[in-house]
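Notebook, bench 3.
Goal today: get a predicted structure for Peroxisomal membrane protein 11A from Struthio camelus australis so we can plan the truncation constructs. The sequence was checked against the plasmid map this morning, with no discrepancies at the termini. Length recorded as 227 residues. Pasting the sequence as submitted so the record is complete.
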Amino acid sequence: RATQYTCMLLSYLLEHKADKEKLVMKLKQLESSMSSGRKMFRLGNTVHALVAAKRTTQLPDVVPRFCLTTSNLTRALYFVCDTVLWLRSVGLQPDIDNQKWRNWATKCYYFSLLMNIARDWYEISWRLEQAIQKGKTKENASWDKEDHKLNCLKCDSLPSFLLLLFQILKRHPPLLLDLVKNLCDLSSPLDALGIYKTNPGVLGFCGLISSLVGILTLASPHLKLKQ
């Protein structure tokens, strides 16, 4: 995935260079190959998404339970559509309406991301509320330095709110990384559905950032937001 989006970004940056035509063509071919390969590697992900949905139905908190279960179910539908598109791309089902299935896949992916972002915002809101309540009650006299920074802030203005938000995300790297990844991933369906059109350079950059965050959370599991 990181390779695919790196190729997309580089081909966009180099496409107007007079002596880079062959390199741009090779980058686009590699990007296409990576995209096709990823579809094949995702063939079993429908089952994984359904298992994840079953697991998230057991969450005690109703909001994360709803958001994550809905996200996993729509993600499973996305993988079904993706499999159909793969069957067409390899010639097993050439009569499939490519545009229709691609549009369905994009909508499922878009809705899944919205649910993930809603869950992230719920987590942030809960932590913001906890920090504000701590600042108001001041019941614990043995705050550490970081707690004191949070409790001294008030959300009575936009700068104060943004500063408090920054402190919350700084203290919870898994939440920050999950939010960054979901927001970066959102650029692709927004562009494909015509909600917010952009260019391959932005899509490549956002996809690369998202992929690097994914690699980081795989290498360091403690940085992955727990479900």
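The chain has one domain: 1-131+157-223. The longest helix spans residues 98-137.
Flagging this for group meeting.
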